[in-house]
Design brief:
It is built from five helices and eleven strands, in the order E-H-E-E-E-E-H-E-H-E-H-E-E-E-E-H. The protein has 195 residues and is of the alpha/beta class. A hairpin with a 5-residue loop joins strand 3 and strand 4. Helix 2 runs parallel beside helix 3. Bound molecules: zinc ion (ZN).
């Protein structure tokens, strides 16, 4: 039986690296994967999935309007091992339902990768429904400057002050975000204190 997987984490934990590594492993064994990423994320050019350690691959893109069930059904071949979705936090509730139908009706595994919460500590729509509906959840861990597990994403300005409000989606570059533990997210301490 196919399953819906959600691999979640704070920013810069290596989600995309894991996605690309898994895809590579399938292809090395002669199987195909369907890769999707968000149209929102044009950091590395549209239609590319690029990890910070330098791996890269071509991907299909989704916006909020795409019927992902129909799109996947049209692209499936006998050789398709699974579907992988990067930036899955940007999926809508409808699209999560569509991915559930891919798993349940087409019997194709779907592996999604995304952020658990936004910079205000609020859920993204896609992540919320993935946390509720996925068959398997797995956390990809990264650490705060203090060494604790980082679970939150802080957005900060040029002076290093944490920004607490604004648009949920503002992808410009990783330098404006830092992954923190809850304690340092709440206190707003973005860096290790200099002794
Ligand atoms: Zn910390």
């Amino acid at each position: 039986m196919a399953k819906l997987y959600f691999y979640y984490s704070a920013m810069n934990a290596g989600k995309t690296t894991k996605l690309l590594q898994s895809s590579f492993n399938y292809r090395e064994r002669g199987m195909d994967t369907l890769l999707y990423t968000s149209k929102f994320d044009t950091r590395f050019g549209e239609s590319m999935v690029t990890s910070r350690v330098g791996l890269t691959d071509k991907a299909l893109t989704f916006d909020n309007e795409l019927d992902v069930f129909a799109d996947i059904m049209n692209r499936l071949t006998e050789n398709t091992a699974c579907v992988m979705v990067d930036e899955a936090q940007f999926l809508t509730k409808n699209q999560i339902e569509q991915l559930c139908r891919v798993v349940d009706n087409l019997n194709v595994p779907v592996l999604t990768y995304g952020l658990r919460s936004d910079f205000m500590g609020e859920p993204f729509e896609g992540s919320l429904y993935l946390l509720l509906w996925a068959d398997e959840l797995a956390e990809i861990k990264t650490i705060c400057h203090c060494g604790r597990k980082a679970t939150m994403n802080a957005r900060f300005d040029a002076s290093g002050n944490v920004i607490r409000s604004g648009e949920q989606v503002d992808i410009g570059g990783n330098e404006r975000y830092v992954s923190l533990c809850r304690k340092h997210y709440i206190s707003g301490q973005c860096k290790k204190a200099v002794a």
